[in-house]
## 1
Amino acid sequence: MLPDEFIRKYLISLGASEDDIQPYPYLFYKLTGRKGKPRIFENPLKLFLLQFVIGTLFWGAGMYIFVWHFRGPMIAQFYSAIAFGVGSGVILAVQVRNRAQRLKLYQWEKWLKDKGFSEEQHTAH
């Protein structure tokens, strides 16, 4: 069994969801072909900051393209995009932190070492 397949099956057997096993942001890793560590092992602050930036930019741009451009730029639009980024970032960070605490999964490198894998085996292209 390949290391990635074992890791995926083992984490699912512990109770992790498919989203917890995928790296964040998933589309970046899928398009580049790189392998990242599962989201459940990421630092919640890092996830918050990534989701804050990505969520604010994408939601703000989408709302501007489809709705806001009819009215012209307003400061309320900027604030609402930031509020969306903060809200979605907090939700993601809290979900990951709570799931990691429930499953007792904290450090990716230590977990790989305990299971007999190396970082190079997992991150190989």
## 2
Amino acid sequence: MIPTQVEQMQDLEKLQKQVNSKFVKVSGIPPAVVNGLMGLCFWGIRLFYFAIAVITTIAHYKDGLKIVGRS
């Protein structure tokens, strides 16, 4: 579910802080490192899905060119 209201965004920030603090307690890794790793993972996921979108777009464009007979 994507947050659409200010309260939901604030709740999301609280949830992220809770998850990070629990991860710090379990792993013993400093909070700054955990925040950095979480940020890196989130950006990695975004880049992965962006790459899938680019590859799909290129493939569909090529298929469209074949359909109209321009290849």
## 3
Amino acid sequence: MKKNGFLWICALLLMTAGLSGCSRDDDDPVFDDRLYKELLKEDFPEGLLNQTTTEFTGNEWGFANAPLWGQGYIQEGNLKVMRNSLGAIEAVDFTGAPAEERPKTVSEFYERYFGEGVIDYFRCIQHTEWDSGMHFETHDYYQQYYKDVIVKTSSGCISFIDDLMVGGSCDYLPIKDFDVTPSFSKGVAIEIFKSFMKLDDYDENRCELQIVRVPEGESFGPRLAYEVRNGLEGLVIDARSGRALYRTSYDWGL
């Protein structure tokens, strides 16, 4: 899916930012990693360390493929709107709209186009400013979290020029009553990753608990998962069943 204008720039910046912040140093919430061999032997289904295929096909955006892509911007009154194949809004371009039609705040944008309270699930992870001498621009990048667990690829970008909103985007994954407790530790996830990728050793601390979006019919649904990476290659593993969900690659040719 190709997105133009500010949305494409936002996506690249968010993905780049994700590379530098994907490792976590907090203690594992469930098991001591030293017990992972015993856990694998006693509690995991036979063949878990011999997986050769994934449940889904991954893509260049770092999540599982599903038939839910943006259809490009279309003119709707004074606005240009991008919707996915189900009609849900992904981005709005306000540059052709009068000031009175534009949201005044980030909260107003999220509430108007994605629902009341949606902004509460997003955190501002980056703020940039640029003063050209003629115009003053700000760009705020948002990331969705649920119970302090990052929701992978669910992010947004809001841009202002001279205090007028010029564009906003949001990939929001609705989540309700979702358990974020994994069934096994990061150590187990790393062993699964090493087996799947046929690695003898693994030195990097690149294992993160996430909520990822996976296909559910024509839409997406949440799945608790670990993403384990070694360099640019990664594997997303179901944090409850231990099954390989899809592979990821962070080589965009940049």
## 4
Amino acid sequence: MVTLDVRIELYEQVAEPGARSVGMYGAMSREDALEALSVPAVGESIAISSLRAAPMAETLLQGQGTSPFLPVRQVEHYPVPVRDGKPAAWYNIHPAAPSATVVLHALGTTDPAFGVPLLAQFAADGWDLGFWSHSEMYPLYEVARNP
């Protein structure tokens, strides 16, 4: 078993794997988000039902089309440099444990009726929300993080 960190990047248009998604709004991320059998490779899929931050009937997360899965777009590995069986003295990242972040793309929206509940669900579940002040979703982010 491995524990995965997850970053869900929200876009105006989500492209097919291998193509570039358009109009990034921001991202939602969480360390230790999933326990999995292995680290998925780029192109493999993760079930939206595992990523939701609410009961399945209330989940608002959407990928490209109607698929119940989001394809892995990127895997970021964070190994820990080891010297004499311990993390290197100069390595000051905490916690000093190796990790992998799985990057997914999902649809974002500027519609407050959809966007605020989406962001609020993930914020309430402990996900970090990251939106730039120039993002079209930033006003929704402000409402969602300050209910």
